[in-house]
Amino acid sequence: MDAIKLLESLPRKSIFHHPAWANVITETYGKDWHGKSLYRYKNDAGIETYPRLFTSIILRPIPIQGYEEYCDAISPVWGGVLWDVEFSPAITTWTQWIYDMLAHNKAVSYFIRYDPIVGNHRADPDAILVGDIVYIDLTKPEKQIKAEMQKQTRNAIENARKKGVHITHGKGEEYLNRFKAIYNSAMAAKGAAQGYIYPDQFYTSLDKWLGPMEGYRVFIATKNGKDIAASLEVGGYGRLYDMCRVYKDDQPQDNAHNLLLWNVIKWAKKNGIETFNLGGRDASGSFAFKEGWSNDRKPYFIGKKILLPAIYKELQEKTGTGGKTEGYFPVYRNQPGNQVG
Would the pTM count as exceeding 0.70? Predict the structure, then answer.
């Protein structure tokens, strides 16, 4: 059984576990990044095992002299281990196999953003609660979804219509270029560092790998024939994720984001998507905006695993970060040019 067949046989999964997403990331950020699927469905004797285990990770070499053979593992956006049986405490024993395999690949550390919708943080007794994400249960009738919004959100949708905002959506080079123009304009207005700008290769790889799977969609808001806002939505297996929404020049215009998201919801329902993850709190304070869309919440957890303690300690000493146990992980990456991102 290959990685994709195993992934698709599991009851709970997301597009970010698919090797195609790992390909997007590794092609975007360079040959030194390596996407890898780790999975187990047979034991050493060739007998099928239960549960079946699967995870997708990105391996990044450590750019510190003398440690080039080592790497750090990170989850691609929402990640963590998947399995195909009802959860039990025994799962935590099985997932140790994943950590052992990463250590075998000379991964010093492993940073995981567990998928709140999948709920796979349960396999990690040391998972760290970060907060909540807002999501929309798209199996509800459209009228119920709208009724459960805050009044100001419903009003903003109608106001955008009255102000002449129109929404179109699609995929491919034209839509990606329009999104990129709006996104880059917004980042320039913010004075954002280069690390926050998606490289051109990201868009090329996104369309190459996720386009044939219908794994992404771009929504554009226009007024008087001009693009004023855009969103990038990524998803698959019945789950949609709000990757990014921006106003041109970073200036909110005519409640366009509200009408954008309402059109995303209607499109997603029409296409059989069951959950829409709006994400959690961020530095911009946009959680208040997200809260207006739904009362549905899921807890958001992360994982921080030190896989090779002796090497981790050496790297701390070499980078002058010894003794630090909180904040950036792994701590030795918190150096100019070394950040995991």
Answer: yes
